[in-house]
Amino acid sequence: MVKKAYQPGESYQYPLIIKKLLNTPLIYSPDREIVYADKHRYNYVTLNERIHRLANGLNRLGIKSGDTVAVFDYDCHRYLECFFVIPMMGSVLQTVNWRLSGDQILYTLNHAEAKVIIIHADFFPILENIWNKLEKVKSVLVIAEDGNPPDTKIKLAAEYEELMQSISSTYPFPDLNENMKATTFYTTGTTGNPKGVYFTHRQLVLHTLAVSVVSGCYNTIGRFRSDDVYMPLTPMFHVHAWGFPYLATLLGAKQVYPGQYEPEKLLRLIQKEKVTFSHCVPTILQMLLNCPAIEDVDLSNWKVVIGGSQLPRGLAKAAKDLGVEIHAGYGMSETGPVMTSATPKEDMLDWEDDKLLDIIIKTGKPIPLAEVEVVDADDNILPHDGVSTGEVVMRSPWLTQSYFKAPDKTEELWRSGWLHSGDVGYIDEDGYLQITDRIKDVIKSGGEWVSSLDLENLMSQHEAVLESAAIGVPDEKWGERPLMVITLKPEYKDKITEDELKQFMKKFAAEGKLPQYGVPDRYEFVDMIPKTSVGKLDKKVLRKSYGK
After folding, report:
1. What pLDDT score does 274 carry?
2. What is d(CA 444, CA 375) in angstroms, rounded to the nearest whole number?
3. Pick the catalytic residue: 444, 507, 513, 536?
4. Catalytic residue among 414, 449, 487, 540
5. Distances (CA, A) of 57 to 85, 127, 142, 188, 457
6. Residue 186 φ then ψ, to 5°
7. Could you tell me the CA-to-CA distances from 484 to 37, 53, 95, 435, 455 in Å, in that order?
8. Class of the CATH-defined domain 18-198
């Protein structure tokens, strides 16, 4: 790298780029640990050294500024290294959702124009099935945890750890234009191909700083600070694990990466490594709370942020009963993602538990530098009165500016200077947003709207219900009627009837918490409710199954 020659009096124009996030932990806490399950542990000094080594390795494979490097891996220290190395080289990190279908993965790799693939050996069957249809890929760097690369016809450039050991630990990372594209990934919708979402260095740095303020500066619950032990339970391929690995690194916090999500292993890591801060979708928390091993784990020091789907009241109460400090947050793939946090305000902290529970399950209030409003069909901003309902729209300096190579989809996303979420909700007098549904999921019965999220939240409070999903199904008289799909806790199977659940929901209608027309008529019992690739309830599949 050629050193810039400065003229006398010429100032340094400080760029907001990802490499700047690494400076602080190397000064504040160089000896703090980064742990991968029970396999590896090292400190921030070694992390920095490995980042430099991997950059030299990718450079040897021909990666240049602007090239895309795709990563298939579990949540681990290697993924954290890639979060930094690839953007710091001026290249683009593509985080691949390996839970998508083979055709969808092929589309995303070709659409993103990936040049190099870094892939765990476990995912090689996926790669082999699409290899002959990849258009731009030149090299494959394999991760073989046992040191033995897979037996494959695909020509491998190197094995990850062997490459790291055989190359220089010094790389001249340049100062980049902060508006350069840093990361990309693909979000799936109800129809068509996945949409490419991307973020610049500046956007990711600003998102990191804003989340650091809302997580650490306010006198409230759920704080995330340098003395916390962080373990993500959101896949790192999904919106940068909600951006928290960047924040954990900036803070120099101890980081624990679990690899594959197995309930017993996750609980063991929480206990062994003294994990204090995590984030996940409701289904992951539900999985942990229903694991028998939880009886042997003390969760009283564990703070959890729930996002991706609404936090049901019943699930929040079950977590709090075990000592977990829990609250909801909100965002989208397109928002980087964090936009709101449902932490209580200072004057709410002494409220009694049941009243406070109603706050922490809300969608939340905007985090610093985020603007959130609700608008009518003409994009007029509606009052914050806890009643006026419309589409949720947002602004912040880190929102994706467009879908990659999809101008038609971008026009749907951005209108009137606001990013349109496709979510329906209202904002109350205290500034808390409450999502009531997705526009496509709201149930329209007899000309009235019934919130599927409200139905699921109320149903979660029945002691026998493990999980539920509400959908609208066609009805000749009313247009649509709500239907509940129910998974029961094992000890209640074959002991609960549809009529019992209907009577339970009627009680909420009698209390005014649900309109009479909103009480579902049908209750279907299933062993498992289908999920999307990121753990959300897959209502598209449910509507196909029951919406006949």
Report:
1. 98
2. 19
3. 444
4. 449
5. 10, 21, 13, 32, 50
6. -125, 135
7. 38, 53, 34, 19, 8
8. alpha beta
Structure confidence at residue 166 (pLDDT) = 84
302 classed as catalytic: no
| Domains of the chain, residue spans | 18-198, 443-546
User: Which residues in 329-354 are b (16+ Cβ under 10 Å) and which e?
Assistant: bbbbbbbbbbbbbbbbeeeeeeeeee
444 is catalytic: yes
Which amino acid, residue 324?
V
How many residues are given for the chain? 548
Is 418 one of the annotated active-site residues of the chain? no
What is the distance between the alpha carbons of residues 479 and 447, in angstroms, rounded to a whole number? 8
Specify the residue for token string 């998508």: 100
DSSP one-letter string for 339-371? EEE-PPPGGGTTS-HHHHHHHHTS-BEEPTT-E
Q: Angle 448-394-307 (CA atoms, 0-180°, nearest 5)?
A: 75
H or E stretch covering 57: helix 44-60
Catalytic residue among 187, 234, 276, 532: 187
| Residue 545 tokens, joined | 């199954």
pLDDT tens-digit map of 338-353: 999 999 999 999 999 9
Among 113, 273, 325, 334, the one annotated catalytic: 334
Residues 189-201: tens digit of each pLDDT = 655 789 999 999 9
- Contact present, 68 and 89 (Cβ < 8 Å): no
What architecture is the 443-546 domain classified under in CATH?
2-Layer Sandwich (3.30)
What is d(CA 441, CA 189) in angstroms, rounded to the nearest whole number?
13
What are 498's two structure tokens?
Answer: 């549809």
Tell me if the pTM is above 0.85. yes
Catalytic residue status for 242: no
